[in-house]
Every structure is written in C-alpha cells, then in structure tokens.
Amino acid sequence: MRVTNSMMVRNMLDHLQNNLGDLNNLNEQLSSGKLFQMPSDAPIKVADSMNYKAQLNRNNQFQRNLDQAENWLNTTESALKSGTKVIQRARELTIYAANDSMTSDDRKMVAKEMKQLRDELIDISNAKLGDSYIFSGQKTGEKPFEVVDNGIGDYVQYQGDKNGVKRRLNENVEMQVNLDGDEVFKKEIEALNKIYDDLDSGKSGEEIGDNLNAMDTAINNYAELRSEVGGKLQRTGNIINRLEANEVHLRDLKSKNEDADLAEVITELKMEETVYRASLASGSRIMQQSLVDFIR
C-alpha cells in the first residue's frame, strides 16, 4: 500500500477532528453537569430518564391528590367535632328541661338556646373547603341544607346528592373522602328542632325526656364517623410517607442515570487535552515535511 503525504495529512485531520469532538463533549458535560445533551447522545439513558420523569410526575400528582384528601378529611373531622359538641350541649339542656320542677316559662327560656344550637348545627352542616361544600356529595357548589319548615316534620331539606367524592391516592388506592350529608345531619337537625318545638310549646318534662335517645344515638353516630375519618387520615399519612420515600428513590435513580461525575469528567478532560495537544504537535511535524525539504 502506497502512503502519500496527502493521505497522512487527511488521517491526521480526521484524528484531530475526533479528538476535538471528544474534547467538546467533555466540555459540555462539565458545563451542564449532564452526561448527554441530545437524545441521540445516549438513547437508552434518555429513555430511562423519561421513564423516571413520568414516574415522578405521577408521584407528584398522587401527592397533590393526598393533600386535597387530607384537607377534605380534616375539615370533615372538624365539622363532626363541632357537631358533637352541639349535640352534647343539646342533651344537657334536654336533661335539664325534663325536670318536673321546670315551669313552662323556664322551658321557653331553654328553648331559645336550643334554637341557637339547631341553627348552629345547620351552619356546621354547610361547611366548605374553599368554594366546595363538603357534605353535598358531588354537587359541591350547592349548599347541602335549606330550611323549609313545612310543618309536617321536615325542618330542612337536603339539596346535595348521594354520590361519593373520590381521590386517587396511588396506583392501587382510590379513597372516598366525603360523607353523605343527608345521613350525617338530617336526623340530628330534625331532632334538635323537635326538642325546640317541645320546649316552646309547653310539653311536659316526660315528653321532653323522650328525646334523649335521639341525642344518644347522634353522639354515638358522630363518634363512629369520626373514627372512620380518623382511620382514613391515618392511611393517607402512611401513603404520603411512602410517596415521599419513593420520590427520593426516583430522583436518585434519575440523577445517577443522567448527572455527570464531575471529578471523573475533569480527569477525562485533562487526558483528552493532552491527547489533543499531542495530535497537534504530531500534525505540525507531518505537515512540515515534503520532498522539497529533503532536496534542499
């Protein structure tokens, strides 16, 4: 094989170009901190990074859903706690008013506070989280209870629906975060209104005392509902902890996949600079040599 000067120069230029490209790649890694700049640089690593990014996005969405669920459940628990206090106070007044020593006028005075308790429970039942009524089912823009007082036993009417409000907490868990307002408050409001009517209309102590069972049932019901909500809050807390740990793991995997080891890159860059300088020095000698130099 015949080797010519032009062939040597061409090979030398090719090697210089390759060395310069390697040097440029290392400079880009050092300046950006990333192992690749374009998908074509490392297709497999790019695919892995896209997968990690998609998992992180899903993880973040689940965390947002969990925040919404926790806020909803905490607001519900607060409403039930306040409702329990109202019912307990109503029970105390019922026991007090059931005493036969109470006169009709005395009971009418108790009726005034009972009326306030009834209205307070209605206000609690219309609790909101932001712009959403939490006890209206999926009709979150509709106030759950309106006063109708039709004189045939109904004092309030439920305006919401029976549909559940659900949140996806992870790939396998979807949780209903709301309670049916009709089941939680309707009977209790009607019970307080009945006690108020009994007190205001001069019913006997025995008749007023007959309402105590309704109060006890309401208190027990609220205790069970608070326990249910508390269990859901405990579960959301556990899921949040797992998602946070998973996020740390995914970010670590993504970092290992695409972040450059700066110490290693600097070492390689120094080596590549040495190789490139040697190539330039070698090339300068080759390009100076010609037949004329020897003839002289």
TrEMBL record:
Chief site of localization: other
> Flagellin N-terminal domain location, by residue?
5-140
According to the UniProt record, one GO cellular component term is: bacterial-type flagellum hook
Is Cell membrane one of the keywords?
no
Entry keyword Lipid metabolism: no
Residue intervals of the Flagellin C-terminal domain: 213-294
Superkingdom, taxonomy of origin: Bacteria
Q: Where in the cell is it found?
A: Bacterial flagellum
In terms of InterPro entries, this protein maps to:
Flagell_FlgL, Flagellin, Flagellin_C, Flagellin_N
Q: Name one GO biological process term.
A: bacterial-type flagellum-dependent cell motility
Query: What are the alphabetically sorted keywords of the record?
Result: Bacterial flagellum, Cell projection, Cilium, Flagellum
Enumerate the GO terms in the molecular function aspect: structural molecule activity
The record's section on Gene3D superfamilies has:
f41 fragment of flagellin, N-terminal domain (1.20.1330.10)
**Alphabetical list of SUPFAM superfamilies matching this protein:** Phase 1 flagellin
**What Pfam family is a match for this entry?**
Flagellin_C
Matching PANTHER family? FLAGELLAR HOOK-ASSOCIATED PROTEIN 3 (PTHR42792:SF1), FLAGELLIN (PTHR42792)
Family indicated by similarity: Belongs to the bacterial flagellin family.
Q: What is this protein called?
A: Flagellar hook-associated protein 3 FlgL
- From which organism does this entry originate? Halanaerobium congolense
